Amino acid sequence: MAGWGGGKPTTQCIGGTRPPPMLRLDRRAGLSAGVSPFSRLIRRKWAPRRDAGPVIVVSVLVVVVAYLVGTLPSAHVVAGRRGLDPTKEGSGNPGATNVYRVVGRRAGLIVFAADLGKGAVATAMGLAVDGRPLAIACWAAVTLGHVLPITRRLRGGKGVATGGGGAMVLFPLQAVACAAVFFLVARLTRKASLGSLTMAVVLPILVAWAGAPPVEILAAVGLALLVVVRHRSNIQRMLDGGEGTWSAGG
Q1: pLDDT tier at 168 (50, 70, 90 boundaries)?
Q2: What is the average pLDDT across 47-74?
Q3: What's the pLDDT at 55?
Q4: Complete DSSP assignment for the chain
Q5: Residue 137 lies in a domain
Q6: Does residue 10 form part of some domain?
Q7: pTM of the predicted model, to two decimals?
Q8: Cα 30 to Cα 173: distance, rounded to the nearest angstrom
């Protein structure tokens, strides 16, 4: 027996009233709340499950792999094809800028792309395995692997490209803005080191301005401090007026 209760159609039943079958179906499908069944399906399919995180051992292994990825000696491999050791030529830094100066433009760009790729791949690996917390750990690990490689007596690069690759995965918009800052400063001053330092300082500011969690802001600050510390010799040369310009060799 149908009736009206509170302005809504109801059906009489033993023990009270209940909504008509169509309204009950709509509630189950989410239509009465303005949510389509398709949206609910997507939420169920892609929403992270609280009980599906990897075990600690897997997370540790992923971080170790990220560190080892960072130790891959891209500058040594590329410069070595020309019979050069980047740690004994130019500034002595096994990074893209030194290879760019000593070996040439093409070689420098290859090293830059390889180092950028190391950071992006390792960070994306952490993101795929267990989301942003593990991605942040992998970002730190791959950057440390590049800067302090255990395979080369902890004598690595300065972490700019590798850290930038990880930032592209975690903070793509901020990373693009930082890249623009780098190229602008480097072009105006013809000093890649000054561009790198400026970019490192700008990144945590942009990350904080975007409202990132404190842990991610601290990670960005840590990367910035690492880059500044690794550039201490460049800073001293800039203060003395002896920092080289960004120019390619043959």
Answers
A1: very high
A2: 80
A3: 64
A4: -EEEETTEEEEEETTEEE--HHHHHHHHHTGGGT--HHHHHHHHHHSPPTT-PPPHHHHHHHHHHHHHHHT--HHHHHHHTTT--TTTSTT---SHHHHHHHT-HHHHHHHHHHHHHHHHHHHHHHHHHHHHHHHHHHHHHHHHHHHS-GGGTT----SHHHHHHHHHHH-HHHHHHHHHHHHHHHHHH--HHHHHHHHHHHHHHHHHHTT--HHHHHHHHHHHHHHHHHTHHHHHHHHHT-PPP-----
A5: yes
A6: no
A7: 0.74
A8: 34
Give 4 or 226, the one with higher predicted confidence.
226
Domain with 166, as residue range(s), is: 53-240
In a domain, 158, yes or no: yes
Tens digits of residue pLDDT in 108-131: 999 999 999 999 999 999 999 989
- Angle subtended at Cα 50 by Cα 48 and Cα 55, rounded to the nearest 5 degrees: 105
Torsions phi, psi for 18 (to 5 deg): -145, 155
Closest CA to 224 of 207, 205, 201: 201
- Maximal CA-CA distance, the chain: 94
The answer to whether the Cα torsion of 39, 45, 50, 56 is positive or negative is negative
Averaged pLDDT, 95-106: 90
Q: Do the Cβ atoms of 149 and 71 come closer than 8 Å? A: yes
Look at residue 92 and tell me if it is in a domain.
yes
What's the structural domain count of the chain? 1
Tokens 């149908």 -> residue: 2
Task: Report strand pairing: 16-18 vs 8-13.
Answer: antiparallel
Residue 74 CA to residue 103 CA, distance in Å, equals 13
